[in-house]
């Protein structure tokens, strides 16, 4: 077993930030760690032009991290792409989420988070591109969902989502929920062949 590994799996994060303000994390290649980039109690920061590849858990992981932007990043072949948990006002723009495939794999996990935006991203070949659980007032627009198992699975615990002007192409299911989902808007999307699972 190599240093920093537990039973053959990496035990450390590539970039680990805690209780920080106004960081710029830019132009890094992070590969083969537990979480590629980990942010806890981080605010007002930018994560730009990074590649987070083949990390065992998350490509990037937000915990209690508010008012942050991540843009122009690649998340490829991670256990799961990005987890945004217990955070507010996170903006995700023009990123690529690809090849997170497995029983608990997704491009983006939104868990107990509010007032965030997912704009102009590309999701391809993920088991689940976006999974929302307690994700409130999330705006998802101008994204492309291509050849995923599920494009969007938004639990009924999430309210007032806006899902507009996205392209849904070649997904097994385009939109799924587990109950009476209360959405603010679902319009202007292109559905190659709308497949809904409830």
Write the topology of this structure.
Elements: E1 5-6, E2 9-10, E3 15-21, E4 24-26, E5 29-31, E6 37-43, E7 46-48, E8 51-53, E9 58-63, E10 69-71, E11 74-76, E12 80-85, E13 91-93, E14 96-98, E15 108-114, E16 117-119, E17 122-124, E18 128-136, E19 139-141, E20 144-146, E21 150-154, E22 159-164, E23 167-169, E24 173-176, E25 182-187, E26 190-191, E27 196-197
Parallel strand pairs: 3-6, 4-7, 5-8, 6-9, 7-10, 8-11, 9-12, 10-13, 11-14, 12-15, 13-16, 14-17, 15-18, 16-19, 17-20, 18-21, 19-22, 20-23, 21-24, 22-25, 23-26, 24-27
Antiparallel strand pairs: 1-2
Give a summary of the structure in a few sentences.
The protein has no helices and 27 strands.
Helix content: under 10%
Strand element count: 27
Overall radius of gyration:
16 Å
| Strand adjacency order, main sheet | 3-6-9-12-15-18-21-24-27
By DSSP (H or I, 4+ residues per run), the number of helices equals 0
Unreliable stretches, pLDDT < 50, 5 or more residues? none
- The coarse overall form would be globular
**Could you describe the largest sheet, including whether it forms a barrel?**
9 strands, parallel
Q: Helix and strand string, N-terminal first?
A: EEEEEEEEEEEEEEEEEEEEEEEEEEE
The SS-based structural class is: mainly beta
Task: Indicate the proportion of strand residues.
Answer: over 45%
Termini distance? Answer: 45 Å
Average pLDDT confidence is: 93
